Amino acid sequence: MTESVPLLELQHLGVTYRTDRGQVSAVDDVSLQVPMGASIGLVGESGSGKSTIAMAILRLLPPNARVDGAVLVNGIDLTKQPDRRLDREWRWRQLAIVFQKSLSALSPVHRIGVQMHDVLRTHEPDLTESQRKDRIEGVLAAVHLPARVLRSYPFELSGGMMQRTMIALGLVCNPPFVIFDEATTALDVITQSQILGEIQRLKEEFDLTTMVISHDVGVINATTDIVAVLYAGQLMEVAPKRQFFTAPRHPYSQALIASVPRLRGTKERITGIPGSLPDLAHPPGGCRFAPRCPHATPACMEHTPPLIQIAPGHMVRCTEFSMKADQDVTA
Amino acid sequence: MSENPLLDVRDLQCLFPLRKGLGDLARGKSHAVHAVDTVSFQMQRSEILALVGESGCGKSTTGRLLVKLEEATGGNIRFDGEEVGSLRGKELKSFRRRAQIIFQNPFEAFDPRLTLGASLRQALRIHGIGKNQAERDDRIASVMERSGLTPVQDFLARYPHELSGGQSQRIATVRAMLLEPDFLVADEPVSMLDVSVRADILNQLLDLRDRDGMAIVFITHDLSVARYIADRIAVMYLGMFVEIGPADAVIERPQHPYAQALLSHTLPVGDEEPVAAPVDIGGEVPTPVDVQPGCRFAGRCPFVFDRCRMETPQLKATSDDKLVACHLFDQPPA
């Protein structure tokens, strides 16, 4: 991490949806820095705001969403860029995203080759026909796909081939930053592991910085070096991967890890997390996880704890730590 | 195996015929997908058997055959001594009560127009359980309470869309439990759920085995989940069992090359000791149409040799308490 300016920086990012039931705060005050070359994992239950953050970065949210804060890429605030500019200069060329539902991300009535050429023609209009062809063949080879997929329609491909196609499409404009939003979730065990291996290799080859969104801690473990835990739209813990898995400090992170059965080692009884995500139209006062937290105290219900740094690169939002920090200051 | 298994499956086969082309008609040929082929195993009461494998390996079809939602095209299933294929009328209805299934997608498990109370009562009424409404309601309440779905009346008055995924799956399990079955097929019951609620469903199933002596076939693609819940694990590939044995033996010492590949590609969580280097198998799972003799894994197997392409390997006992269908473990005596 030699770069001083992070490639991606989220500053107090907030996303609020206007709905019939009032304001729903889906993402609340998320600040993150992703250094060049790093890979950050966003983990949390469904509804925790993981994908909303990705959509906010790319500005793909529906019109009833209001975005606060800033999304800085190489120091430039994307939220201030005009639509046309964002489309021409940023999406695909600087930031790409690979979704889970690849079948619905492509047009069913056009061949894959046509769709890939379209992307290049739109975002890099200066390329000649043969340059486009070279570029496309290059990315297909990088994800181990035969050139014949260019003549195929999406429905003719298997799930693994579709997902590889989506990754190739994401890389076709050589973006430095790629978001993988549950990109391997629907795949079989072996295909998933092969594609994750390829993503790791591509990361080196293309010098990528990545954001991996997954509910699966196994995927997070295989692909990231920083883990950000989201709960009800808030960051609960940000930690280097090793710390997250070996010494998670937030009770929610601990509960997440304790709920996953292991393949090796002694067989321990796993436990779920009782209760469910709070209603984000009326989030509970105090810590949002407090109603489900086994260690909650009355203090947790009163004040929302701040995200505080407890070690280099390790931050936690928990009353236990913020109270300790306060005592240290007064002492 | 003991004298009286609850379930005794012999050479179970399920072929799905494919539509005939004009050329096939002229030549009088027909094609079929071999979804399940010569599967044999036994199950005792109080036992959980996990069927693992990739999509298309026939694990769900096997589950559906076991509860007679699909008709076998060959072989037979004996349930508590009775031949399932020949059950009719009253006996069939009794089998339907004793053998239950829960599915992957809990959102599609209930009639959206009925309250959950109505759905649950219907199951009891159809099978004539409970003398009157009050008795049936008592029974529902006690099973719901045991599953931690309280307040009961609040849940019974709701419609399916008012539940979370975890709650739906727990109520689907409750509906199966109401009929006090001896045997349950659980087809990927947790793969659509958040990890935070998965544990509850898995522990609920373990409790059914321990408290009620239920036999459960648990279908999953996740080997960590299989290890957690199952007493025995059967690994399937293209409609056949390639390895079956005690869960720990299969997970710790897989023998069939496919089982080894599957395990080596299962992602470790955190600081777990690294699993063996990924076993490299090329390509993807083919469709088992008009299978030729020989091992079905031969085309992708890193250890393939001539015999694999000519002769289909049979499940044979290995020194590790398992049955493995692979010529590597079945060398003819020199």
Structure explained in plain terms:
The complex is a heterodimer of chains A (331) and B (334). By secondary structure, chain A is an alpha/beta fold. Chain A folds into 2 domains: 8-94 and 175-330, P-loop containing nucleotide triphosphate hydrolases (Rossmann fold, 3-Layer(aba) Sandwich); 95-174, no CATH class. Helix content of chain A is 34%, strand content 23%. Chain A is built from 12 helices and 12 strands. Chain A has helices at residues 50-57, 83-90, 102-105, 112-123, 129-142, 159-171, 189-205, 217-223, 241-246, 251-258, 298-302, 319-330; strands at 8-19, 22-34, 39-43, 65-73, 76-77, 95-98, 177-181, 209-214, 226-231, 234-240, 308-311, 314-316. In chain A, the strands form 2 sheets. An 8-stranded mixed β-sheet of chain A has the order 6-7-8-3-9-10-12-11, sandwiched between helices. In chain A, a hairpin with a 2-residue loop joins β11 and β12. In chain A, α5 (129-142) packs across α6 (159-171). The mean pLDDT of chain A is 91. Chain B is α/β, with parallel strands linked by helices and 334 residues long. Chain B has a single domain, classed as P-loop containing nucleotide triphosphate hydrolases (Rossmann fold, 3-Layer(aba) Sandwich). Chain B is built from 12 helices and 12 strands. Chain B has helices spanning 22-27, 59-66, 89-98, 116-126, 133-146, 152-156, 165-178, 195-212, 223-229, 247-252, 257-264, 306-310, and strands spanning 7-17, 32-43, 48-52, 74-79, 82-83, 99-102, 183-187, 215-220, 232-237, 240-246, 316-317, 323-324. In chain B, α4 crosses α5, α4 (116-126) runs parallel beside α7 and α5 (133-146) packs across α7. The longest helix of chain B is centred in the middle third of the chain and has 18 residues, at 195-212. Chain B is globular, with a radius of gyration of 21 Å. Chain B starts with 6 loop residues before the first strand and ends in a 10-residue tail after the last strand. Classes of the chains: A alpha/beta (331), B alpha/beta (334). Chain A binds chain B through residues 45-46, 158-161, 188-194, 196-197, 215-219, 221-222, 242, 244-246, 255-257, 259-265, 267, 269-273, 276, and chain B through 54-55, 164, 166, 194-200, 202-203, 221-225, 227-228, 251, 261-263, 265-273, 275, 278, 281, 284-285.
